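Feature request, filed as a ticket because there's no other form

It would be nice if the structure record came with a short human-readable summary line next to the tokens. Right now we just get the raw output. Example of a typical job, pasted below so the devs can see what we mean:
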Amino acid sequence: MYTLSEKIEIIQNAGSLREVQDSGIMPDPDAGEGYYFISYSHKDYKQVFCAVLSLQNEGLKLWYDRGLETGKSWLKDVKRRLYSYYCKGVIFFISDNFLRSESIWNEILMTDSFAKSCVFVSLLKNPLREEIGRIPDDRVREALNRLLRCGRVFPPETSPDMLAGAVLSLNKPKLFQYERAVVEVGGESIDCLEIVGMNDISAKKLVIPQEDEFEGERLPVYKIGDNAFANCIELEELIFPRRWSRVNEKAFYACAHLKKVDFGSPLAEDEATLDLSAFAGCNALTEIAVPPGVDEFYSGSTPPPHIRKIVIPSGDFGDLRFAALQELYEVEIAEDASCNALRFTCCKQLRKVRLPNGLPRIDPYAFIECTSLQSIVIPQSVSSIGLAAFALCEGIDRFSLPEGLLYIDALAFYGNVMEKIVLPASLQKISAGAFACCRGLREVQLDCERLCIADDAFAGCKSLKTVVLNCGQMTMNLEYIGRIDYENLSIQDIFLLKKSDRRSKKTVLDKIFPEAETFYIKDGGVKASFRGGFSRVVSDRQGYKKYVKGRV
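Raw output as currently delivered:
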């Protein structure tokens, strides 16, 4: 076992860096919490390695490049150690060799970018600032001058205890970079912190604090800014504070290994809003659980590409709107979840959804073009089905509409494949094109007591041959949504549609159901009216009048 003075003597008498390493006297770099990064030229190993041993003898944890490892993986590790939050500062050993090294230029730029505190040991013969002026790269020269303005410069003969004291007195970096912000909470404006950057791209797990100190004050952390955690490529788990308000676009962009996110439990007054585009490029994130109390949780123009499952637990939610999640396969919704709005627009791989029991309505475009959706249970609480809500859901061959349903909006079931539909007694209105181009639809049964129905509600239903009317009263509604070619209507056209004024007119059954060949009308029910070509025949259903197309 060598003493410190013996190790220093071996280094000073060595003929090469390899000889020092082969002697086994240099300790492993320390990557534990609270280390200091040594930035130096390998050609200055004698002076630097003696200083490393002396500083470690003073109790400092040091991470340094021992000089023999090469290649991209080693360079990547050097960058990771410098970027890490556990790196509490940098010690620069500046020499002529140092100033000419392009790899060290990168270390200077990174130190400046992440605002690391630093000290300098000058091994130069001439004044330091004079030598810095000879660096040909403007960015490096400016960065090094910025660092010098905040750091102290020591000569090489500085005693180890003095240098160690200066290093230990450096301002320690914070894990998060903040800016002041203001949010509305419970109708009041409050000062808070917004996270705008991250000082450790190597972190595997992050817990965002509920509050932190900034400029001498302790403030709540309520916002996460654009690109705040972008490219934290090793991040695997993320825990939000319990309460938060806003997460901006691409806040976690390209966190490629992020697998698990706990979104906390914001309160209604926090008006918590999150666009899933905040996780664009997070390809390992396949499942998310929406936090109760969230005001808006949605997917915008650049959603993460691999979300396969969404969990909506028990609780009260605001607007939950998801669009174009191309790999979303499963949605798990608690029966007692309560939502202001719930949409899964154009999620083409979505297979099955069971909606919460208390859902008051199906929102416009809620499941439009969910082409793989095979079944859906519409709860009895639903009173209206919105514009194009189930349009182009080509995989659902059966819909069970709830008793208590009052209104079916325009194009609600456009282009579906069900063969039969029963419209409940509670239904009061069916808007334009609600069942247009349901080409597999063969039979419609209307149990409605009082119904107002658009004259083109069943336009293009070429297989619809039988209509059973149990209605007490029916009026025909001329409600237009523009001049529509139902046969060639695209999804882009649907999103641009606008409804126009409406007026009522005498009900003409073969105008509403232009392809129908047989009508059964309940005795004492709606009065039959046809444009022509229908004849009454002996009914094969007790209690119904029967009309068939053609003369008998």
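Something like this underneath would help us a lot:
The first helix runs from residue 4 to 13.
The chain has a mean pLDDT of 91.
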